[in-house]
Specification:
This protein is mostly helical. The protein has one domain. Helices cover 78% and strands 0% of the residues. It is built from six helices and no strands. α2 crosses α3. The protein starts with a helix and ends in a 6-residue tail after the last helix.
């Protein structure tokens, strides 16, 4: 086992806070595209297979999350190309895991591609909790320590 693995700590409150903030931004971006897609099909009643709606919702959630994160990075004075690469590279695994678990939750609890008052909070909680430890680990792995 490497010394890096031995020295890793899951107990840094500052890193948990920072990773929670990053995860929340990612969740907001994913939810905009994902929920927007599901709501569109729910309101228009366009006959489209549930699995296809869910796949489209995942794709749109990934796109809106990348766009939102890129805008946030640009506002921090990071050039467009670097912002886009960072948004896609650092958090793409988070976004995919978030999207898949949100849609699996929807599928298992409602049959899929249905938004209502009780499923949305559950989807958001699951979508947040799934990538949060990964985001913490990524912050620690890149030597961003608690200060």
């Amino acid at each position: 086992m490497s010394s890096e693995a031995i020295n890793f700590s899951w107990s840094c409150k500052d890193t948990w806070k920072k990773s929670a903030k990053n995860t929340a931004w990612c969740l907001l971006g994913c939810a905009i595209g994902d929920f927007g897609t599901i709501l569109f099909f729910q309101l228009t009643k366009i006959p489209f297979p549930t699995l296809s709606i869910m796949i489209l919702a995942i794709i749109n959630g990934l796109i809106t999350s990348i766009i939102l994160e890129t805008i946030i990075l640009i506002k921090q004075k990071i050039p467009l190309i670097k912002s886009l690469k960072t948004a896609m590279g650092m958090s793409f695994i988070s976004m995919i895991s978030m999207e898949i678990t949100m849609n699996m939750t929807d599928y298992f609890l409602t049959g899929g591609a249905i938004l209502n008052w009780w499923i949305v909070p559950i989807m958001l909680v699951v979508g947040f909790l799934t990538p949060w430890p990964y985001n913490y680990w990524r912050l620690k792995k890149h030597n961003q320590s608690c200060h």
